[in-house]
């Protein structure tokens, strides 16, 4: 079992910024938190340190023991495509998932920030305004993350609950976004366009249901 953080480390964790998780402490303290998977060092200057999800849990539940290294490494990592214990997963709509709260909001914000940094690091021009390679191989998860990060609500298990649903399509590099109500659907399209996706609104011939077809913009 992983040893609990020391009293000094808990004080550093407790003093972290409640929104961003930014840490302040000695280099030794910060390095120790990184080694325990409770913090990560940002790869770009000024190389600040931030709490990982495990570190946030320690901050929120002082008596909780960390599960071990599980979050942002020393270089930005893309959000997980699959869910799992202690692993962030974008909500595509229709999951039997608990209601969002401050912890979920923070996780989504952190995942979106990490994805933007991944864009900057993998695009030759350092641009963050268009999707990167990871997004093109995880279309559904990438589009869902962009929507959730912008404040859109994913649909619940009950189809009548409302909220967005992102689904794969037979078309290459394209996902379908469903949302009850024309205004909500257009709002989803606007969010994806702002996040670097191309969108178009279409009608399903057999059902007459309107949906948005979205694909990552290349330039």
UniProtKB/TrEMBL annotation:
Q: Where is the composition biased (Low complexity)?
A: 68-81
Annotated region Disordered: the residues are 1-24, 59-81
Name of the featured protein = Uncharacterized protein
Where does this protein come from, organism-wise? Streptomyces fagopyri
């Amino acid at each position: 079992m992983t040893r609990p953080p020391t009293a000094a480390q808990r004080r550093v964790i407790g003093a972290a910024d409640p929104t961003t998780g930014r840490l302040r402490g000695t280099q030794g303290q910060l390095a120790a938190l990184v080694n325990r998977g409770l913090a990560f060092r940002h790869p770009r200057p000024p190389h600040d340190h931030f709490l990982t999800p495990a570190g946030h849990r320690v901050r929120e539940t002082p008596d909780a023991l960390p599960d071990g290294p599980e979050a942002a490494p020393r270089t930005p990592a893309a959000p997980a495509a699959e869910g799992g214990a202690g692993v962030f997963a974008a909500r595509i709509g229709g999951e039997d998932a608990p209601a969002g709260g401050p912890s979920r909001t923070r996780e989504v914000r952190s995942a979106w920030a990490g994805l933007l940094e991944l864009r900057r690091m993998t695009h030759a021009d350092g641009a963050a305004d268009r999707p990167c390679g990871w997004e093109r191989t995880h279309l559904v998860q990438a589009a869902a993350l962009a929507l959730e990060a912008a404040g859109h609500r994913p649909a619940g298990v009950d189809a009548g609950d409302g909220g967005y649903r992102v689904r794969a399509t037979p078309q290459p590099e394209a996902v379908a976004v469903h949302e009850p109500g024309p205004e909500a659907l257009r709002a989803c399209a606007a969010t994806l366009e702002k996040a670097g996706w191309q969108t178009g609104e279409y009608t399903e011939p057999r059902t007459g249901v309107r949906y948005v077809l979205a694909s990552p913009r290349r330039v």
